[in-house]
Amino acid sequence: PLAPALARSEAAVDPVLREILLEAVEAAMSAGAGYADARAELLLRQSVRTREDHVQGVSESASEGVGVRAFVDGSWGFAATPDMTTDGVVRAARIAAEVAKANAAVERSGVRLAPVDAYGDVTWTAPHEIDPFSVSVEEKANLLLELNQVAMRREGVRFVSSGLSCYRTDKTLATSEGTVAAQRFMRVGPY
Question: 1 pLDDT exceeds 50?
Answer without folding.
Answer: no
